[in-house]
Each structure stands twice: as structure tokens, then as C-alpha cells.
Amino acid sequence: MLTVRDLDAWYGKSQVLRGVALTIGEGEIVALLGRNGAGRSTTLKAIMGGVQRTGSIRLNGQEISHLAPHAIARAGLGYVPEDRAIFPDLTVAENLILGEKRGVAARGAPFALADAYALFPRLGERASAPAGALSGGEQQMLTICRTLMGNPRLIMVDEPTEGLAPMMVERVRDLLAEVARRGVTILLVEQKLAIALELAERLYVMGHGSIVFEGTAAEFSANAKIRHEWLEV
Amino acid sequence: MQEALFVLLNGLVYGLLLFMLSSGLTLIVGMMGVLNFAHASFYMLGAYFAYTISVGLGFWPALIAAPLLVGVLGVAVERYGLRAVHRHGKLAELLFTVGLAFIIGEIVPLIWGRSAVPYRVPALLDFPAFTLGGIQYQAYRLFMMAVSVAIFAGLYAALARTRLGLVIRAALTHPDMVAMLGHDVPRVFTLVFGAGCALAGLAGVIGGNAFTTTPGMAEALGAIVFAVVIMGGLGSIPGALIASLAIGLIQTVSITLDMPLGAMLGHIGLPLDPHGALGQITIAHAAPAVPYLMLVLVLALHPRGLMGARAD
Ligand SMILES: Nc1ncnc2c1ncn2[C@@H]1O[C@H](COP(=O)(O)OP(=O)(O)O)[C@@H](O)[C@H]1O
Ligand SMILES: [Mg+2]
Fold this sequence. Notes:
By secondary structure, chain A is an alpha/beta fold. Chain A is built from 10 helices and 10 strands. Chain A has a domain at 2-85 and 152-230: Rossmann fold (3-Layer(aba) Sandwich), CATH 3.40.50.300. Chain B is mainly alpha-helical. In chain B, 73% of the residues lie in helices and 3% in strands. Chain B is globular. Adenosine-5'-diphosphate (ADP) binds next to helix 1 of chain A.
């Protein structure tokens, strides 16, 4: 469904990604692992057109790398950034409504406000509160739901459990499992190996801006060398 | 007493005019991060366009057509100028708007001459609405107030109630995220820039005949509008209204206070040599500096301005 080839990306003059290649099939959950600074967040941003980059990005066979970020989103990609980027002065409901892509037809039943409130009732209770007043975990649920409101076919989620209390980590994990159950493809950047291995069928490991390992969860678990060389600190 | 009332009314009219200029600019600066030095130039163009149109067709067609023309010009400037310059960074954008202000400032006297043009208040509203203590208050000034208040209400409702308003409010803090949710943020920028220019143009249409329409009118207001925007807080329409009214009122009042500082401080028991250089300054002399003093004061107490959405 998503095929990335020869992806290079830069911040100013410094090159951060070098020839990144990824393939994600329809309905898959794929994890993208690596140490801090490996280039995982930049890979997601580069796919969305948020940093200067070159290379090929195909969504369902169609080249999207020449499109502006809003057009890439409307082509079916959803993005939940690392810093969450909620709109703090807007209400919870307004944040969610901004996730809707008007004029883009959803496949199957569209994800609506009621779905967000059913999955995470706290959002419904706080619907008219400013989003900035939510806790970190609630904000994380809000950003994921906000992106789901656009009915993406593939959602890219960057470290959703970072800094969350264990109970919220479980809720985020359950939400992602539910998203997958609804048929949305997921590319997940996750620092907590246990969660990545629990959710993902396939994994990529990044180091120094390139992909250094690609394989199934079982292959990864059997490969202590990769873990030692590219993940453990 | 009546005189004080008239000073207040004039301050209110001036403040509301500042609001029409600053409401567009605060969205442009807040959302796009573009310090648009040409904003007051669009105000001037509004006045000159209205003058030319009113000579041929009268004031009322000019009231509609001149702001629209200025808005279309603004859209073109954003779409084909700023957007191309944007890639080269903030400094390039700044230089572009400074250059644009300069060019408009040179073209206007070439077309309309260096002295004021006889752009007049429409006869329909050129009568005293009321008389107090022998002083007449022109009906057109009440019309100016009504237009400004309607613009405030309309803008406020559009930002609070419409989907486009929601997108604009979100883009004030996180334009990149708004785009990645599927909203065409560059097009929204163009719209906001065009609408902001149209509002500045409208301010020129209704202000140019109440005051004067000269090639210097943009320069006279340019810096003050920035003071208003920063004081009100970037991106805040209510903040822009409060700051405009405060600066409009205080500046109008201070122009009329021509008692020397030495004598004035003497009244309240503060000794300052009434014949020294400082003692002879009047508040009226210092009036042009008053908005900036207020700005410094507000920023010292509240770095985001009165109601700003973002700090940078
Ligand atoms: N906004 C930025 N400007 C400059 N360099 C950046 C920026 N963001 C990240 N980097 C650099 O790019 C590299 C990759 O970062 P990132 O993609 O955030 O890694 P990860 O998400 O895997 O931790 C790092 O060396 C980081 O310092
Ligand atoms: Mg990261």
C-alpha cells in the first residue's frame, strides 16, 4: 500500500535520511524502531512532506512525493506527530472536527465524533474544555482520534506512549489495536519494544538515517545482534 | 465637559479605524508569521481607489468596489509574490513587504499627485447628527463607527462559528499540523491575506474622507498599527479591538493636553523646573510616542500581548 524508495531528507544543509526504503502492505501493522536520533520521526515527517526531501513515495501505486502536505493527507495518509501538536486553545470537540477531511469519501463507515467518544469517554466528558487542559495521556488519545476523524487508510503514529503512565500506555495500545481491527494500516514508531512486538507483524530498524534491519517479529526476536547493535543503549 | 465628550468620540472613531487595519494584520502576522510592512499601504490604496471611483460613480459604489479591488490586489500579492519569496525565509519576506510599501508609496503620488486629493464625505451623511454645547457631531462619524463595529462582530462570528474560522484559529498556533490534517493551508493564507488587505482598504475608504487622503497617510499609520497588533497579542481579534481603542483614545486625548509637563506635575505636587527643557514639553508634544510607551508597558507585564495566541 505504501512504498518508499531512496528517501533522502535534510534539515537545512545537514542530511538526516539516506536512502530509506519501506514497504507496508494493506492492513499491516509495521513498527519502525531505532535509537534516539536514528531518523524515525524524520522518516514520518518526510513521507508527509514536512521536511525537505527527495525520493519516491507511492501510495497504492500512485506517486505522492510531489504533492503538498494537505494533498498527501487527503490522498489517505494520517499522521500523529511525536509532539502531539494539539490545538491548545481550541476545545476537544473542535480539535476532533479539524481532523475531518471534507470532500474525501471514507471507505466503509466513517469515523465520527461518536466513535471517538465511545472509544475514549473522557473526550466526550471534556468535549467543550480547551484541549490544552487535558492530561498528557488524554492529549495523546485526542491526537490519535483527531487523525482518525479523517478516515486515513494508513496512519503513522510517532511514539504515542512516550512519557505516559502505565495505565495510559495500555489504553493507547488498545486504541491502536482497535484502529487496526477497523482495517486501518499502521506504521508505528515505538520506543517500548514490548508494545512494538505485541502489535506489529513486521519491523524495520533504523540507524544513522538508513534502514539496517527488516523482518518479521519472530526474525527480529531471534536476532540478538541487531538488538544489541542498533537498539540497546 | 462637552468638549471632553467630543474628544472621547473622536478617539473612539480613530480607535475603531485602527481596529479595521489591525484586525487583518494581526491574523496575517499571527498565522503566517509575515511582518507585513505594506499593510498600511493597502489602507492608502483603499482611500485613493475610493476617491477615483466616487468621482465617477459616487461614494456608495466606492464603499463596496474599492475594498474588493484592494482585496484582489492582496490575493495577487500573496499568491504570486509572498508565496514565491516564502521559500527564502523570513528576512526575504520582510524585505519583500518593505519594498512593496516603498513601491506603492512612489506610485500613488505619480498617479494622484503629491498633495491631498479632494475625497469628500458623502453628502447624504454630511450633516450634524447632534449638537452639544454648540459643537456639532457629523453623522458620517457615526456611520464610521457603525461600519467598524459591524466588521468586528462579523469577523468575530466568522472566526468563532465557521469551519474556515476554525481552521484559521488552529493555524495560528500549528499551521503545519493543520495542513497535515488535510487542510489547504497555503490557500487559507492567501484568503486571509486578501481579506486583511480588503479590510485595510475599507478602513481607507471610510477614513480617507473623514481625515485626509495624501501619499503620506500610510506612513503615518504604519508603525502604530504594528504597535496595536503586538499590544493586542498576535492573532487575537478581541485583543486588536481593545488595543486599538486604548491607543486611539489615549492618543487623541494626549494630543489635546497641551499643558506643559512642568506645570502639570507642579499641580500634583511633583517638582520639575517649569522653565527647564523637560518641564516645557507638553503631553501633546509627546503624543506620537504614547502608543509605543503603552506597548512597552503591556509587553513588560504580559509578553504575549493582551490576548495573544502565540509568543514568538
Ligand atoms: N528540526 C530539526 N532540525 C535539525 N535537526 C534535526 C531536527 N529534528 C531532528 N534533527 C536531527 O535529525 C536526526 C534524526 O532525528 P529524528 O528523526 O528526530 O530521530 P528519531 O525520531 O529516530 O529519534 C537527529 O540527529 C536529530 O538531531
Ligand atoms: Mg523521534
